[in-house]
Specification:
The complex is a heterodimer. By secondary structure, chain A is of the alpha+beta class. Chain A has 5 helices and 10 strands. Chain A has a single domain, classed as Alpha-Beta Complex (Sulfite Oxidase, Chain A, domain 2), CATH 3.90.420.10. In chain A, 29% of the residues are buried. Chain B is built from 16 helices and 13 strands. In chain B, the strands form 3 sheets. Chain B has a 6-stranded antiparallel β-sheet. Chain B has a 5-stranded mixed β-sheet with strand order 8-10-11-13-12, with helices on one face. Classes of the chains: A alpha+beta, B alpha+beta. Chain A: This is Molybdopterin-dependent oxidoreductase.
Chain lengths: 168, 587
């Protein structure tokens, strides 16, 4: 094996590594509406992952019809699965702390997102959620589909005005 | 009442249990309702919403003040958004209804209007604008006060609701406990009743089992008794002198004894389990029921059949067949040989006695009728001899003596004939038939008659082979021939021949005696063999009219006969027939 060949193999290995490791998130272009920190692998700003609406829109959109404890009737929510979002940043923790604009703070086990199709909603009944209502993002549980979710111990995990996630 | 009584005893507690269970279900539903209320926890949620709205308003006020004081980091826009968010929450859905119930609808509307005013102020706000900060503060102060009132009212409402909920919870719990206790008590009662029923059942089963055992014991006992009875019966039947066979309703043999086959060889059937019908058929065909006397009688126990039958070489048997009450039959065979023999000999003795009586009556009648004439002759002859005896010539006296002796001889014959007739009438004549040569008998009798008559005018002709074997009693045949020959000699002129002819025809031997006398008048022929009949023409010839009658009787008891054939003035022929017997030997 010649030195040239050996060099080219090392180069190829390095290149392939840079492809594997280098798929870091692209930096946000617009206003950041969600930041994720903690035990995550993919980041774009320091060791955090910052999302604007464009970055979030890369995730597959989902729809969920459910009732809530603070509204009347059935509301239609659209947005992204929490499961998909955490996979996007390659989260490796047990739970995540959800923080809201109003300084609301709650700890949610990650298993919730694997067991249920928990939605990170950005619209309700076709209207974009704003910070003056419950936006820009609202963690919505499929409450009507699973009877065990109709419980106050789940109700407090419905974080609206979500601003930040800290994976632990 | 009667329908209630028919229901099982545990029905009432079951009904009570159902009632308690319904009550319990009702209580549990109420408990679940309480639990659901607590789970939704609207009150606490409301308190939280109100206080958060208060906090948001405080923080908005603080942010505005800090911006007015030159703090660039202060962000009144974000705080305003938060505050709006809180108000929006209060102003919609369940939260709005809850507060409306408490009478805060107007307060919420005023708060929303206040928000619009504050938003307008914040649009133009620049750092250091203290006047605007005061205006915002003045706008927020009454909102804060309203939120305080709301929080107060919500807290009181919450405590009231919690109290009510606890009351309901306790009440439902007590109801549930009471229901459970009721169900338990009813269950205990029912279990008690069931246990009692169970024990009664067990006792009944035990009693039933005991009863069954007792029944089985009795059956066993009775079976033993029956077996013993049957054994005794069998022993009795075995030792009985008569033969027995019992058949069931289907005609199958059930019991028999050895004497049966011993007494009735035809009855070997029962010994080989033949049915009754077959046995009877065998007996009928073997015995020939025409020889047995059959008689049917109706007894109290149904039909019975009795017959006597003679078994050659074994004697007489009496068969009795009786129907039993259960449709079966009992056959009894008794040995009645001695009884039969006694009866037969008794009958014979009776007949003989009757014969003796008839003998004497007949003899007396004959004697009284026939003896008068010769006695009168003897008496008158003796009277004449007595009166004139001394004056009579020797010759005349000799004639008288001869006539007297003739009369005595006639009387002697008369007595002999009368005795014979009497024997016949008394059935006292016995004959012992055997095989004899009729030719020899005829020769002997002819010789005797010729000697007695003192003349030689009987001629014998043989048209049949000699010897001519006949079955007869020799003495009786000699008596018949003597009568016929003496008649022929008596009623034909002296010197005329008397012919005896011997022949055989159709299994019979014929012996005819012909004379050449005066013959017999046709009118007399039908009466010739009657007793005491005498032809007028024969009046001069001594006779009593019994000879031919006796002769024909004697011929007939030997299965033979005597016939007569005569022509007046030419002669008469008497023919004796006797059965031939070619198988015998010479005596």
């Amino acid at each position: 094996m010649t030195a040239m060949t050996r060099l080219s193999i090392v180069f190829l290995l390095l290149f392939s590594c840079s492809v594997a490791l280098g798929d870091s998130l692209p930096p946000p272009q617009g206003p950041v509406i969600l930041s994720i920190s903690g035990e995550i692998k993919r980041t774009n700003v320091g060791d955090e992952a910052h999302f604007d609406r464009t970055l979030l829109a890369e995730l597959p959109r989902h729809r969920l019809d459910t009732s809530t404890v603070v509204t009347d009737g059935i509301n239609r929510f659209e947005g992204y699965l929490m499961r998909d979002l955490l996979a996007q940043v390659e989260a490796r923790g047990e739970s995540t702390v959800a923080l809201a604009l109003n300084d609301y703070r709650v700890d949610i086990p990650l298993t919730d997102f694997h067991d249920y199709d928990v939605l990170l909603a950005d619209t309700m009944d076709g209207e974009t959620l704003t910070p003056r209502d419950k936006g820009p993002l609202w963690i919505v549980y499929p409450r009507d589909e699973h009877r065990e979710l109709q419980d106050i111990r789940y109700d407090y995990r419905w974080v609206w005005q979500l601003e930040r996630l800290e994976v632990r | 009442m009667s329908r209630l009584r028919r229901l099982p005893a545990h029905f009432a507690p079951l009904l009570v249990i159902v009632a308690f269970a319904t009550f319990l279900a009702f209580s549990l539903v109420r408990l679940f309702q309480v639990e659901q209320d607590m789970r939704e926890n609207v009150d606490e949620n409301m308190l939280w919403v109100i206080t958060q709205a208060q906090v948001a308003s405080h923080r908005l006020d603080e942010a505005v003040n800090r911006l007015a004081r030159g703090d660039e980091t202060a962000n009144p826009g974000l705080r305003f958004d938060n505050f709006v968010s809180r108000l929006e929450l209060i102003a919609q859905g369940p939260q709005q209804r809850y507060l409306a119930d408490l009478g805060f609808s107007d307060a919420i509307q005023e708060a929303l209007l206040g928000m619009q005013a504050i938003e307008a102020m914040l649009v133009d706000m620049a750092p250091g604008d203290l006047t605007l900060a005061d205006q915002v503060h003045d706008e927020l102060a009454p909102l804060l006060l309203k939120f305080n009132h709301m929080a107060n009212a919500v807290m009181i409402e919450e405590w009231e609701n919690t109290g009510l909920r606890l009351d309901k919870h306790r009440e439902s719990l007590l109801q549930a406990i009471a229901s459970i206790v009721g169900i338990l008590l009813s269950g205990v009662v029912m279990v008690g009743l069931l246990l009692r029923t169970l024990s009664q059942n067990t006792a009944a089963k035990r009693a039933l089992a005991n009863h069954r055992v007792e029944l089985e014991r009795q059956i066993e006992h009775r079976t033993c008794d029956l077996e013993a009875e049957r054994a005794r019966l069998a022993a009795a039947i075995d030792t009985a002198p008569d033969g027995f066979a019992a058949f069931d309703a289907e005609g199958k043999l059930t019991l028999t004894n050895p004497q049966l086959v011993e007494l009735l060889p035809y009855a070997a059937g029962p010994a080989h389990d033949q049915p009754l019908a077959a046995v009877l058929d065998t007996i009928r065909s073997q015995a020939g029921m025409d020889t047995a006397r059959e008689a049917t009688a109706t007894g109290t126990e149904g039909n019975s059949l009795q017959c006597d039958m003679e078994i050659p070489g074994q004697g007489w048997r009496q068969l009795t067949l009786r129907t039993t009450w259960d449709g079966g039959h009992v056959l009894r065979v008794a040995d009645v040989t001695r009884y039969k023999q006694a009866a037969l000999s008794l009958e014979e003795a009776l007949q003989r006695e009757q014969g003796v009586s008839d003998f004497y009556r007949s003899f007396a009648a004959t004697v009284s009728h026939q003896f008068r004439t010769p006695l009168a002759v003897i008496d008158s002859g003796l009277q004449r001899l007595q009166r004139r005896g001394d004056n009579m010539q020797h010759e005349e006296r000799h004639q008288r003596y001869v006539r007297l002796r003739d009369a005595v001889a006639h009387m002697t014959r008369l007595v002999e004939s009368a005795l014979t007739v009497a024997r016949i009438d008394g059935n006292q004549v016995s004959h012992r038939p055997d095989n004899f040569d009729l030719v020899a008998i005829v020769s002997h009798t002819c010789q005797l008659q010729e000697e007695a008559a003192g003349s030689q005018r009987i001629f014998v002709q043989h048209d049949a082979p000699s010897p001519l074997r006949v079955r007869c009693d020799r003495a009786l045949v000699e008596q018949i021939l003597a009568n016929l020959l003496s008649n022929a000699l008596k009623y034909s002129p002296p010197g005329s021949p008397v012919t005896v002819r011997l022949s055989s025809e159709d299994g019979m031997a014929l012996c005819s005696v012909s004379d050449q006398g005066m013959g017999i008048a046709p009118n007399d022929l039908p009466h010739l063999f009657d007793r005491f009949f005498r032809s007028r023409r024969a009046a001069t010839v001594p006779g009593i009219g019994l000879g031919l009658n006796i002769a024909r009787y004697l011929a007939r008891i030997q299965r033979g006969d005597i016939t007569v054939n005569s022509r007046e003035g030419v002669g008469a022929t008497f023919c004796l027939t006797l059965p031939l017997d070619n198988r015998g030997t010479l005596p």
